[in-house]
């Protein structure tokens, strides 16, 4: 219908004329309460944001001579972080003359990545930047198996009524 007629009809109903699709040919409009429409849109956006999960990068710092107990403790933290869906950045920091033994840091990071193999996977390669060696591990996405749908599943037959014998 013509625009003026649509505006007049919306005013008679006490509603606003809202353009739903201005690029369509002809443009599509709807007569509704504008305040209610804004409220519903805001509510939808809020619900969408609530369902999002922000992936964070959790950092764990090691030294080239980190003890086994400390290593296990930090590995358990990494397991928890990966299961929550976050990334883990493992960093081996070298101080002073320790930089001469970069191979110890590489072994430590390889061991760390190997221990977390089923839960996390390496993103890229291990990198030596300045006095630190680091690697980033991302959680492995596990496909949840869906229950197979039964095609043409037979419905149970209705129970037969018990026969009643007529007694004289």
Task: Name the structural class.
Answer: alpha+beta
Beta-strand fraction estimate: 25-35%
Briefly, what CATH class of the largest domain?
Alpha Beta
The assigned CATH architecture of the largest domain is 2-Layer Sandwich
Strand runs, count: 6
Please, what is the average pLDDT? 82
Amino- and carboxy-terminal Cα gap: 78 Å
CATH superfamily of the largest domain: Translation initiation factor 3 (IF-3), C-terminal domain
How would you portray this structure in words?
The protein is α+β, with helices and mostly antiparallel strands and 168 residues long. It has two domains: 3-50, Ubiquitin-like (UB roll) (Roll), CATH 3.10.20; 57-139, Translation Initiation Factor IF3. It contains four helices and six strands, in the order αββαβαβαββ. It has helices spanning 3-13, 34-50, 68-83, 102-115; strands at 16-21, 28-32, 57-62, 87-93, 120-129, 132-139. α3 (68-83) links the parallel β3 and β4. It is rod-shaped and about 85 Å long.
Short characterization:
This protein is of the alpha+beta class and 168 residues long. The protein is built from four helices and six strands, in the order αββαβαβαββ.
């Amino acid at each position: 219908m013509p625009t003026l007629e649509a505006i007049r009809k919306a005013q008679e109903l006490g509603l606003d004329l809202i353009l739903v699709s201005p690029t369509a040919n002809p443009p599509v409009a709807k007569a509704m309460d504008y305040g209610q429409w804004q409220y519903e849109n805001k509510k939808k956006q809020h619900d969408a944001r609530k369902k999002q999960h922000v992936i964070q990068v959790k950092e764990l710092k090691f030294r080239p001579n980190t003890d086994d107990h400390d290593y296990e403790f930090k590995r358990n933290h990494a397991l928890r972080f990966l299961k929550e869906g976050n990334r883990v950045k493992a960093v081996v920091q070298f101080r002073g003359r320790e930089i001469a033994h970069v191979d110890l840091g590489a072994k430590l990071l390889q061991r760390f990545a190997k221990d977390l193999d089923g839960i996390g996977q390496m993103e890229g390669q291990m990198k030596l930047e300045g006095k630190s060696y680091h690697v980033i591990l991302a959680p492995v996405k596990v496909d949840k198996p869906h229950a197979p749908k039964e095609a043409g599943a037979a419905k149970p037959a209705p129970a037969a009524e018990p026969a009643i014998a007529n007694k004289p």
